[in-house]
Amino acid sequence: MTHLIQVLFRSSLLLSAFVLAGCNYATVPDPALTAKDAEFLAVVAKADIDPNFQRYRVDDPTGEEPGTIVVDTKNRFLYLVEPGRKAIRYGVAVGSEAFGWTGAATVGRMAEWPRWVPPAEMVERWPHLAPTLTAGGVDGGPDNPLGARALYLYQGDKDTLYRIHGTNEPQKIGQSVSSGCIRMTDIDVIDLYNRVKVGAKVLVN
Questions:
Q1: Does the keyword Nucleotide-binding apply (predicted)?
Q2: What topology is assigned to 25-204 in CATH?
């Protein structure tokens, strides 16, 4: 029975890939990794990502200026708009209905393997995180929920406390599960990080 389920799952992945191939999609190669990236990613949990949520270059559906990041929370996609009416589309996990955030922001700061300090509001909801806050957060690494990279979203000079970041739970890509932040697989957030700069416009719809 288990073997049959595995066969059916692989068949569904192949069918999805075939459907995508018939559209105007092109795969995007993985980015180059630093030595630290390779070391940490080697121990991060692996997951089979639905082909629909993998990284593709597509026709731009947003109409925004090149360099703009657009997050489609309903369909769980993040688009990085490119010249020539193209965009790179990434699968993401988004905030649950209770904690989802939408709006316009800019990338105010960027960090590699960032330290994670849970916001006070999160600790109020989940008191078990209090020791993490008391300890000053969690060092960057494979056990850190921010993953390989973080883009910090600002409105003017104010940190919104929302991030676009990696994840050590890649199996949740395509779901509505986070506390409002936009999660990407680590390899995808590295790719995005390499393509954007501080000041980039971000629209979360």
A1: no
A2: L,D-transpeptidase catalytic domain-like (2.40.440)
